[in-house]
Amino acid sequence: MPNISGTAAGSELNKGLMEQARQHRQELRQLEEEMEEKMWAKKAEARKELEVETQKLRAEIAGVKEQSQQLASEYGEEKAWLERRLERVAEAARIEGKGLKEKGPAQNMTKRRGRVEGERAEWERARAEYKAQVQSLQQRLTNVSGLENIMQQMSARP
Fold first, then answer.
1. How many helices and strands in the chain, by DSSP H and E?
2. Distances (CA, A) of 70 to 73, 125, 133, 134
3. At what angle do helices 106-156 and 8-103 cross, to 10 degrees?
4. Whole-model pTM over 0.70
């Protein structure tokens, strides 16, 4: 095959190829710029969605914290009320026990003791229930707080 690079035809062909390469590079730059613009637009959109989800999670966290505090407060009040009630019942049983010893019928004492033990069992059941609810809320709060940390880390990324 003959070498045409030194001829006018070869020179003209080389010009055409150079022009075509220049056009391809220009088109490639334009495509890269368009892709970058679209990428930034998607990042901005993703950031907005992330912010919306972060706000939703923060609202849920606040709700869980409030619910946890409410439950803890109710638990404390219920516990104090049950403890006062048990003290009154125990005191009444003690006083009645003194009177029964003097009078002699141990049967009444057994009935009273049964009622006191029943109330104590009810108190223990309620206490266990409140404790389970508090633990459940604390676990939810821990899970939501973990999600909030992840969301903060994600939103801090460029």
1. 2, 0
2. 5, 20, 11, 10
3. 170
4. no
